[in-house]
Structures are given as C-alpha cells and as structure tokens.
Design brief:
CATH architecture of the largest domain: Alpha-Beta Complex
Number of domains: 2
Order of helices and strands: EEHEEEHEEHHEHEHHHH
Strand content: 5-15%
CATH class of the largest domain: Alpha Beta
Strand order of the largest sheet: 1-2-3-4-6-9
Distance between the termini: 28 Å
CATH topology of the largest domain: 2-enoyl-CoA Hydratase, Chain A, domain 1
Structural class: alpha/beta
Helix content: 40-55%
Largest sheet: 6 strands, mixed
Length: about 270
Amino acid sequence: MSYEQILYAVKDRICTVTLNRPQVLNAWTDVMAEEVWQAMHAAERDEDVGVIVLTGAGRAFCAGGDITAFKSDDPRHLLDKLPRAYDFSRRPDYQSRATYFPAIAKPIIAMINGPAAGLGLVHALFADIRFAAEDATITTAFSRLGLASEYGMAWALRNAVGHANALDLLLSGRKIRGAEAQRLGLVNQSHPREQLADATYAYAREMAASCSPRSLRVIKKQLWELPFQSLHEAVQTDSAEMLDSNVCEDFQEGKRAFAEKRPPRFTGR
C-alpha cells in the first residue's frame, strides 16, 4: 500500500511508522489518522514484524491536530468520524479513533524525537513504551487553547503518571522536556537526541529477537486489561493464560533453547 502522509518500513523484524509532514511538525490530519490505522494493522498481520516503532519525520514527533483543517462552524461533526466498536472479540474501549493501539497484538514503541503535543501526545500515551529525546518538548496543550482533554488522554495520562501529575500537566498545559517526562513516568527512557534512535532500535531489536511473539501478545493484553479488572479477575486471567502458555509451542522452544544455550527460534504459537 502506498501512503501520502506517513512512511512505512520493515527492517530487522521492526516496522517503523513515520508521521511524514515535517514542514508542519507532523500535524495530525484525517488522512494521517487513516494511514496510521492501516499501517498498524498491516504490521500486526505481518509475520516478519515483531515490534512497531512510531515516530515523526524531521525535528518533531507530532505537534497535535492540524488546526488549519478545523473549518466547520459546528465541530460536532467530528463525532461522526469516531469509529464504532466493530470487533466483538476485542474490548470496545480500545477501538476508537485514537485508542486502538492497545488492541494491536504487537508492542508499539513511541519514539518521541521532538515536540509532542495534544493529539500527538494522545497517540504516544496509547503506545506501550515511550522513548524520548532529552530536549523533546512535551505538552498536553489543551487548556492553553481553550479546549478540553480529548480522545482519552486524561485516562491514559493518569494511568501513566498518576492523578496528581496528570492534573498538573493537563491543567497547567506547561511544557516539559524528555528528562522530566522520564522522572514523571511519562516516558520509559530519555536520551540525547543524537542517541535516541540507536537506543530505541537496540531495545526493539532485542525484544524482537529474544522474546516470544506469543508471550508479547498475551502480556500486552494482560497489562491493558488491568484498568478494568479487580485483583481477583486479574489473578483468574493470569492463571488461565499461564495454563495455556505451558502447552504452547513457544514455551517448548524456550525450554529447548535454554537447555541448549542457543537463541530461541520462536514461531508465535
């Protein structure tokens, strides 16, 4: 598939999806939204992909929604563009316009290489792991534009950094850098800009090469289900998944590889 506003590439079992409107700091559009959706699902289906990296072209990750596209006098028309739950085997919470990343059955790493604001930050928050440049500017932005938090950002931000820090970042709309974002728990790692890509891809390659695709799929689902579960429900889910894992092909291969002191050759089954 050809794309207009993103780039799609696969190397070393890593799919890189790059937001590609660098002249406007990769401002988010409806075209970009559709293309990212298509790319994420293409990477999910591709057996040669183990990990997905989402990043931005040029000096920004994503500066938020493209406000030049907001021309309607009645913004309620945007509600009509929100996808409705369509896959009854998946949680409907993770099937909306910006919250479907948790339903992608492979790890998604947001590599925040530069400014991330508003809708750009929303998508980073629904990724599984976040790496950022130490000097990357990150902001919720909404309160300084007269807007409300959108697309589940408040929910995801509170899960990432806790209630008090989420209130701070949303109410103040202040800008933080990657190093502070790491201290708050908003990103997993921060690196000097010139070292960010190397660190991110080294991490992704290790995961893609050494971890069972089946385990990654199951563990990701376990973690994203937790906000909706009691402890008892989580224990029941874990027990059922562990029983299934004990008889899966990847576990048998993992045991053989450990005994033979060699890298595993996982199949994802």
